[in-house]
Amino acid sequence: MTNGLPKHQRLKGRHWFGVLFEQGDSIKRFPLKLVHTPIAQATQHLFGVSVPKRNVPSAVRRNRIKRQIREAYRLNKSLAGTQDFGALFFIYQGRESLPYARIEQAVKELLSRYNETKKFDANN
Predict the structure, then answer these.
(1) Is 48 inside a domain boundary?
(2) What is the reported pLDDT for 30?
(3) What is the helix, strand, coil percentage profile of the chain, to 5?
(4) Is residue 1 in some structural domain?
(5) Using one digit for the tens of pLDDT, what is the confidence trace for 28-38?
(6) Considering only CA atoms, which of 31, 30, 120 is closest in space to residue 81?
(7) Which domain holds residue 90?
(8) pLDDT band (50, 70, 90) for residue 42
(9) Model-level pTM?
């Protein structure tokens, strides 16, 4: 698996967001929340990120946090597994900017926990 994050792996469109928030499950690890749902015909994970304006009013800070989350996901997306692909949506829940190392650690833990929940669901 390459480390790129091409445009076709981005989560886009009302349909996918509707499915994600109606049927999806969530996992929390401060400062992030991961909302995920399986997609039957997917050939890779679809990825999205959000930093609410209510929590981080400055557009410059919001964009920097989004770039940090995308980079952490790009480098660690192999932790999400290579089977049973789904839609993954990260929501930043902190109120201030945090160091990249803390964001990356949260992304790693969320992806590992997501992969474990997939294995648990497959066994049942």
Answers:
(1) yes
(2) 95
(3) 50, 20, 30
(4) no
(5) 999 999 999 98
(6) 120
(7) 10-123
(8) confident
(9) 0.90
